[in-house]
Amino acid sequence: MRRRLSDLKSLYRKGEKLVCLTAYDAAQAHWASAAGVEIILVGDSLGMVVQGHHTTLPVTIEQMVYHTQMVQRGNQQAYCVVDFPFMSDARPEWALEAAAKLMKEGGANMLKLEGGQRVVPIVQQLSALGVPVCGHLGLLPQSVEKHGYALQGKEASSALRLLDDAVALQNAGAEMLVLECVPASLANEITMQLSIPVIGIGSGAQTSGQVLVWHDVLGITLGRAPKFVKNFLTEADSIQDALAQYVAAVKSQTFPTDQHILAP
Fold this sequence. Notes:
With 264 residues, the chain is α/β, with parallel strands linked by helices. It is built from eleven helices and eight strands.
């Protein structure tokens, strides 16, 4: 039986770390789910790790629907979060149309949007319609052409803006937040300020849970792997064992360690 949002909230209230992993097809979803991953993210990162693009920008809504359908066929028990692809939320009416496709055709359980104040009205609209929403702050892959791949929130002003954005997203109805590549101290502060789960990636160990890309967990990253990832396959006998080790490491809080924290 697949997990519901209420199940994730229950784990969060108990203080148990939530484990999230990307997946892009039925087999990946099957083994992630079997390993005990509670949240599967169908990320637009598929544009880079599956399609071979240099950014996530070329990914279309049709492709996100297609990959979500595959993932949900293989998924046994995980909660499925799906990205809005680039520009699909540029206008509220576009966002509503994209949400309908991702949930009705793809089978998504929750939708994830990148950005702060800009997406607050969209989060409000989607939440009012009963759509579970996950925010995404910090490094925004859909904005790399402008901001690049770099640690976010290093200065006091930008850190305060991220905290304000996080609170605004929660107040707008977001049920979860992804924090990507922000200082560990800031990630901890945001996690403590919010009453929803905060899932970190490259943001230290004090968030409510962790997410990594499937390919990074198995050491098959195209190009240079980010500093904050760990290849769990080096100490495993199989892919299934590597995934189980990832789950266990997040649950026991042995991952991430100081060596996986990005220096300001």
